[in-house]
Backbone:
């Protein structure tokens, strides 16, 4: 799967997503782009999953118009030491994700 890591998360999370292509929004040159436009760009570029720590995303965007799965990490914070332990759960759920689905991952 192709996974876009939101800029609010550490790009190094991608290293834990073994067997998948994971890249940060910053590396794509998409820093500072608002979530709606970012999701549209991700879909256009063929990403399957958007990985974010933004818990408000579901309230800020009409996600039904996007055909990309969204994984929201609900850790204590967005720092790497909080989110990295959740990657095992994320890797396990990736094969089950459907386009347009929103999944929250908690510790």
Residues:
């Amino acid at each position: 799967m192709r996974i876009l890591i939101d800029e609010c998360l550490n790009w190094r999370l991608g290293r834990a997503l073994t067997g998948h292509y994971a890249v940060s929004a910053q590396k794509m040159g998409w820093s500072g782009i608002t979530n709606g436009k970012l999701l549209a760009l991700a879909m256009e570029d063929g990403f399957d999953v958007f990985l974010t720590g933004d818990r408000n995303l579901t309230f800020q965007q009409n996600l039904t118009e996007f055909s990309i799965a969204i994984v929201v990490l609900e850790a204590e914070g967005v720092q790497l030491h909080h989110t990295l332990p959740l990657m095992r759960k994320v890797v396990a759920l990736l094969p089950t994700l459907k386009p347009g689905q929103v999944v929250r991952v908690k510790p």
Observations:
- The beta strands are 2-5, 21-24, 49-52, 69-73, 102-105.
